[in-house]
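assembly run, all chains below
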Amino acid sequence: MKYFLKRAGFMAFTVFAVCALTFFLMNVIPGGTAELILKHTLVGLEESATEEQLSQISSRYNLDDPLYLQFFRWVKEAVLRGDIGTSYIYKKPVLYLLALRLPATVQLAGASMALAIVVGVSLGIYSALRENRISDHILRIVTLFGVSMPGFWVALILILIFSLKLKLVPVSGYGNLENLLLPAAALSFHSVAAVMRVTRTSMLETLGQEYIRFAKAKGLPVWKIISRHALKNAMLPVITVIGFQMGSLLGGAVVIEKIFAWPGIGSLLVDSISARDLPVVQGCVLAIVTMFLLVHFLVDMLYTHLDPRIRYG
Amino acid sequence: MDNAFADRLRKKSFLLPEAYGNEFAKRVFQRKDILFALAVLLFFIGLALFAPLISPYDPNAIDLKNKNLNPSEEHLLGTDYLGRDLLSRVLIGARTSLSIASGVVLISLFLGTAAGCAAGYYGGIVDESVSRVIDIFLSFPGVIFALTIMGVLGSGVFNLMLALSIVHWAKFARMMRGQVLSIKKQEFVLSAITGGAGDFYIIRKHIVPNAIATLLVLATIDFGHVILSISTLSFLGIGLPADVPEWGAMLSAGKEFMRTAPCQTIFPGLAITLVVVIFSILGDGMRDILDPNHEGGEIY
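ok done. output:
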């Protein structure tokens, strides 16, 4: 229990620190913000921006205050009213934009994670059972390339093969299952390889244990040895890697969403960075970091549940 | 987790601390896969260094009459959407990736080693504060952070190196801290302290030489990651200026012509993959030597 509190405290501290970091980072360019807001308000009138207009905006958004005051006001609004700013471009609350985009990202990341676990673990077990045979060697070479290929390239190659040449699935879009297939496959590619690698190593180690030999001697069928005895013990390192992979999935989602025009937080982040829509950038970073920390927390909980020997102090 | 890893490393490793570096080097040169990867890497570095001499065309020469060509005898890998020779561009792109990645890894290695040494050696409040900072930097996806920094700084070679170094130093710092903690307990450090050696002398003469193999492994593995990050950011159009030939940027421009001229999408990506594969083989092989029983997880 004490550990949970400590952990929750660290998570809150990290979220706060990341917010502070991005907030100050965003505002290092002095005087830029007012011009930026004006540019987005009066499209086409950038050149005619007068000093008066700039100072009007500065005072409306309190941009003349010192940065730390602006930051504390931002935190106060965020904590008390859940208001984390308004987009310069869309003129909508950032929270609303995030809520609009969140389901797509959760869907994509969830599907990719599921794919990584199911495909990665089963291929890993298969590879371990066929140690040093041809299929094992082929799978190991595939994983070596799997962890080395850039995600966006995998996505482009998949589009090239399955959308343009074979015309099986649409190039982009959102809503149907067939739209989800390619992005999820592209995003999970790296994680499938990583999960498979660890499953193989960990499974081989477990299969060498005495109790597995005993189970074999007892005459248990292979699938029963795997499912009943080996898998649970072999899964611990796999879960650690899945936790690590969650980070690379959320990072990779940014590019994959952009390529497939997937309406998630990642593509919102890239678009906002290009358009310098700072409050939205800040919101996206906040959302991604929070998701990431929550997943890590869950993974650790699962870990203690599966292996009661581990007790966090 | 990294402390546990470092301890495990010291216990299970059959290498004596003092002869650590030499023994490590000897074992590296006994492994065929590492030697093979090293040879290929040297070949790639050679290609990058001599790119202007060996590339058949000027990588930036625009030839609109011959745009979007498929591979032929004149253009071995075809041409891009402006008629520039793809082989020449992929070759010169190796320069960009390898040089920026070297810069990032060196800066991260230096910063990380310094921070990790300070935290591990002095302990107490220094360790507490440095460790918290490391935790924060490692607690969210690096690409997101680099992206945000680039969004603020704007594209450019220097900015890209800065952004990626800010993201990557923390891994080195955490690893170094773990190393220092376990090396500090060894007798030769204790005797050096008893002999009245200064802090800086001990760090320079005892701690860094004994941690160098582990740092080298991490640097090798990280090199591949940095190359992936560089190309990802350029692909998104927030890495390097448009006139710098870079693999990720080539892919980004080429993808518009994927239907008719798929070469622009295939070859630069293949180049990235090959280089990263080489670093993976090198890193994994060297990690096997340091820690034969590692679980295959991405502990680093």
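DSSP finds twelve helices and no strands in chain A.

Chain A has two domains: 2-94, 101-264+287-306.

not gonna interpret more than that til we talk
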